[in-house]
Amino acid sequence: MGNDAAEKTEEATSRRRTKERERGNVSKSKDMESALVMVAGIALLALFAKGMMRNIQDMMRETFSHLSPAGIDVSNIMGLLLPYFYYLAVTVLPFFVLLVIFCIIIIRLDVGHVFALQKAKFNLENLSPQRMLQNAKRMFNPFEPRSLVELAKSILKIVIVGACGFSAINSRKGDLLGLVGLEFPIALNIIVSILINMIINMCLAMLILGYIDKKYQNYEYEKSIKMTKQEIKDEQKDTEGDPKVKARIKSIQMQMARQRMMSSVPTADVVVTNPTHYAVAIKYDKTRAPAPLVVAKGVDYLAFQIREVAKQNNVPIVENRPVARSLYNTVPVDGMIPSDMYVAVAEILAFVFRAKNGDN
Predict the structure, then answer these.
(1) pTM of this prediction?
(2) What's the confidence (pLDDT) of residue 36?
(3) Is 300 left (phi over 0), alpha (psi -120 to 50) or beta?
(4) Domain check: are 253 and 224 in the same one?
């Protein structure tokens, strides 16, 4: 039984998932992110290729048009390098800025919104010799299970992606052999076409591997955050409160409500009894309600207390079993009597008022 209770067999609750995200523990696939970043980089490179080539040509033209030693001022190095910085920024900066934006979007899509300060905190325990030794053993131990899995995945990825790239070249083997003797522009177009096919094949392979890795990482993450039955109970106890504490609070609330109810008995006009099991205190006040109110009710010991308080405060007690039982079962404390009981209650109140007037 102890082993079964300690096994993590339950799916993680929403509260557990929220806590894990707050700690920065989320499902993340580096392979999927790398594949998407590579595709985005290649797409941006294709988009900016013409502009980059034009900027490179302008930079080369600028360079070769100022080769005269007489026009070179060695004392003004920044003036000489500034045009190259400009061309470099115009050529590379838009590409890298957009690539960084794509990287942020890709990571956000992979892990969602995560803001974990614990990951950013500097932990001195990581610098302890014992922790560093453990990390070194884990890193350099080739038989560590996780290291073996990662090594196998890396080898498999290299083989699959390499095979996809090689298949693209192998399918165009005849074109490659026919490059000999061709004019340079034609040969360059053939080589570019083969490279594009190779890149597309490799990107598709990386995307497929990334998708598989994402599913695997999701599985591992779900497995790692599973909970034991005891953890589920403890979480429910923290969320909803300890049942013993809740029972104690409920008991105190009932006791306070009972005290308030008993304090209303002396103001009642009559107490209707069963005669011993049920007791219902009724008050008729036109300023409070259009019909008589049940200001207190009880059964057994509580009914006995209501009768005793009524006797001590000279509140009339009338025995009427059907009315007492019906009022107790249908009317809450401070509730008006139902219309179908107006006649029965009116008769009791009339009897009580006549008795009081007769005494007076």
Answers:
(1) 0.55
(2) 92
(3) left
(4) no
